[in-house]
Write a structure and sequence with these properties.
This protein is of the alpha+beta class and about 240 residues long. It has 5 helices and 12 strands. Helix content is about 15%, strand content about 25%. The strands form 2 sheets. Strands 1, 2, 3, 4, 5, 6, 9, 10, 11 and 12 form a 10-stranded mixed beta sheet that branches. The chain starts with about 25 loop residues before the first helix and ends with a helix.
Length: about 240
């Protein structure tokens, strides 16, 4: 089952001391996601537009051949980020780096450069209320979308200086993402010591991803990841 970490796995000796320890990355990954049911474009980022993984670097886009990505999460926004677009949702314009009319990188207040702030605080913003927007099928949602920003590297990049990408967890899978992170935590696994497999949910009628446990990082990768956890690029993402 997706998002559930198996129990019958052997922890490598080089990671044994990290099992059951407090993980600040896990706290950041869960921050703002509750316990129940943005704007930056200067980083290389992974998009899921059209049901394909794409690497966007400014105006350049590369479509990846695989429908599965094996990643290592090295950073996460402590809170959910938020973005609001006026009018009908246009996935193509959003994916082509159209800046939101209003957005927040901390989930508390609009960013200083937000073009059209909808409220002084996100907590009492009318666009942040459930039902402030309806889907094409009449379902209720929030006009301002909650998201989670992650900093990830490719698990297949074994260099000492791997490329770090921005990956945004969309509203539709925030609950599944929380379940995955909690499943790791319940077994004492810090997110940074495992490989996270990201793939498309083939049963969904729209581009939707899922998260799965992909094994543990190697001893060499572990050393690199430890150096990235507080790196400037990760903190900026």
């Amino acid at each position: 089952m997706s998002n559930i970490v198996p129990t019958n796995v052997q922890v490598p000796a080089h990671l044994a001391g990290h099992v059951g320890t407090v993980s600040s990355l896990a706290s950041d990954m869960l921050g703002g996601l509750g316990t129940g049911g943005g704007g930056g474009t200067k980083f290389k980022r992974i998009s899921i537009r059209g049901g394909r993984f794409r690497i966007r670097d400014g105006s350049n886009e590369t479509v990846l051949p695989s429908l599965t990505l094996e990643t290592i999460i090295v950073g996460a926004s402590p809170n959910t980020t938020k973005s609001y677009y006026k009018g009908a949702y246009d996935a193509k314009s959003v994916e082509e780096s159209k800046k939101p009319d209003c957005y927040s990188t901390d989930g508390i207040r609009p960013a200083k450069d937000a073009e059209d702030p909808q409220s002084q605080l996100c907590g009492n913003c009318p666009q942040n209320i459930w039902g402030s927007k309806l889907t094409a099928g009449g379902g209720k949602m929030k006009a301002c979308a909650d998201q989670k920003r992650l900093a990830v590297i490719s698990a297949s990049d074994t260099t000492d200086d791997p490329e770090v990408y921005l990956f945004t967890v969309t509203p539709a899978v925030l609950t599944d993402f929380r379940t995955y992170v909690e499943s790791l935590s319940n077994k004492g696994y810090s997110p940074e010591i495992v490989k996270t497999v990201v793939s498309f949910d083939t049963e969904a009628s729209y581009p939707k991803i899922k998260f799965d446990f992909g094994g543990f990082v190697s001893e060499e990768q572990h050393k690199v990841v430890q150096g990235l956890l507080d790196a400037d690029i990760v903190n900026e993402i």
